[in-house]
Design a protein that fits this description.
Oligomer: single chain
CATH superfamily: Cytochrome P450
Number of strands: 14
Shape: globular
Distance between the termini: 70 Å
Helix content: 40-55%
Structural class: alpha+beta
Number of helices: 19
Strand content: 5-15%
Radius of gyration: 22 Å
Length: 464
């Protein structure tokens, strides 16, 4: 039986490295053991195998392995955070059912409506910027991402209860992004109530307070359903499967928290990296601004059409290259083998836990020459397969909110760059840091506002 090499480091050391420096940990292991290796992240934790060769990733994502590999069972540690009905924790028919009911709220015509909302929120959050001011982009982009999710997905307005719910959601997410709560939330042995000020007790209290508000919102929406509302929550309340059965209040609560958890800090982190790379490479910035200035302007809104923005090829390439270099997470959804499998000439017995190490795949020199160089042109020169480029995962576990996240990223970047002249406050390379499950830029990317920007006048499109 041919098995992958095992990382020869104490499990506690592996846990600390994975918690505080996950990218360095993966790079070190890949250098020592190759593109497939077995890790034990924490004493008493099960062993997991990281894979990064595209042939191995393709096998994990292949339809013929859909029944041989399950993913929900491999993410049960998220139950405390997302609830037992989250689609991330489901497998088989229930997983497919949830995806079919959630997907319509995040695709198609909904994107057109969300586009205007995202651009407006971005303008509102940045409208007070002044020349000479230094801003922390991660903080600004967190505000934009959260407001976009709350308005587009939850449909929250400025009412008192909505503001309270938004406040509790923000507190909940901020708690999860602290290293101590990452350890508590994702490692069950640490989930002990040690008194009023213990991290676990505080987490449970926050969850209870948030649940009360969410369920109150769901009950109120059901009682006063507006079929013309365009937010995802309203759509989930109306969604039915082929048997005519909809989602329960608990299922909706868990799916909404899943969308929020997956799309808040991850978006802010990815957007922050993009702003860093754009401004660290003047030639890229100049070319991108020229493309943005080429957009036609609606004569009524005085702004470009969001759907025209998201089709810009160089903007798309810049976003793709930024996510290649710094995906929100270092690895993708774990899979558990239901049967014995052979992948990349290695034999895996049933119950093996297999994890796509997307950070390593995205830094392979055979796929991406000079892999640590920021080069958007590589995405204009060739098309990568889902096994070669997968910032949103792949196969049946492809991120349900990927279209919304990509759409939002392009609109936020375009809106800010068209309206403001920015400059990095510190030209030195930015280090990474762990924020919950995500990898964020340490320090949050500080930028100086040099002033407002007047785009090169484009053609004006008359509106009929």
């Amino acid at each position: 039986m041919n098995t992958p090499p095992v990382v020869n480091v104490h499990p506690l050391v592996q846990l600390l490295k994975w918690t505080f420096a996950p990218l360095d940990y993966l790079d070190e292991c890949c250098t020592l053991y190759g593109d497939c290796f077995v890790s034990q992240i924490g004493s008493g934790s099960p062993k997991v195998t990281f894979l990064s060769h595209p042939d191995a990733i393709a096998e994990l994502y292949a339809p013929h392995n859909a029944s041989n590999l399950v993913a929900g069972r491999g993410q049960l540690i998220l139950k405390l955070v997302l609830g037992r009905h989250s689609s991330m924790l489901l497998d088989g028919k229930e997983h497919r059912r949830h995806r079919q009911l959630v997907m319509p709220s995040l695709h198609g015509e909904r994107m057109r409506v969300y586009g205007d909302t995202i651009c407006q929120i971005t303008q509102q959050v940045t409208q007070e910027w002044q020349a000479g001011q230094t801003v922390k982009m991660h903080s600004v982009l967190s505000q934009i991402a959260l407001q976009a999710i709350l308005k587009s997905l939850f449909g929250l307005s400025g009412a008192k209860r909505d503001r309270l719910l938004a406040q509790k959601l923000r507190q909940y997410l901020d708690i999860l992004n602290q290293s101590v709560f990452f350890l508590v939330a994702f490692f069950p042995p640490l989930q002990k109530d040690l008194g009023a000020w213990s991290p676990y007790r505080r987490f449970l209290k926050m969850t209870q307070e948030l649940d009360e508000l969410i369920y109150e919102e769901i009950r109120d929406r059901r009682a006063n359903l507006d079929p013309n509302a365009i937010d995802a929550l309203t759509m989930l309340l109306q969604a039915q499967d082929e048997t005519g059965v909809g989602l329960s209040d608990e299922e909706i609560r868990d799916e909404m928290l899943t969308l929020l958890f997956a799309g808040y800090d991850s978006s802010a982190s990815v957007f922050s990296w993009a702003f860093y790379y754009i401004h660290a490479h003047p030639a890229v910035k100049t070319r991108l601004l020229a493309e943005l200035d080429s957009l036609s302007i609606d004569s009524l809104s005085k702004s470009p059409d969001p759907n025209e923005i998201v089709r810009l090829p160089y903007l798309t390439a810049v976003c793709s290259e930024s996510m290649r270099l710094r995906s929100a997470v270092p690895s993708s959804t774990p899979r558990i083998a239901n049967v014995a499998l052979k992948i990349q000439n290695y034999d895996f017995p049933p119950e093996s836990i297999l994890i796509p190490a997307l950070h390593l795949t995205h830094h392979r020199p055979d796929l991406y020459p000079n892999p640590r160089q920021f080069n958007p042109d590589r995405f204009l020169e060739r098309r990568y397969s889902p096994a070669e480029y997968n910032p949103y995962g792949g196969g049946s576990r492809y991120c349900v909110g990927a279209a919304f996240a990509s759409f939002q990223m392009k609109l936020v970047i375009a809106t800010i760059l068209r309206n403001y002249q920015l400059e990095l406050a510190d030209k030195r390379p930015i280090q990474t840091m762990r924020r919950g499950v995500n990898v964020s830029p340490k320090g949050g990317v500080n930028m100086i506002i040099r002033g407002t920007r007047i785009p090169t006048p484009p053609a004006v499109v008359a509106v009929a």
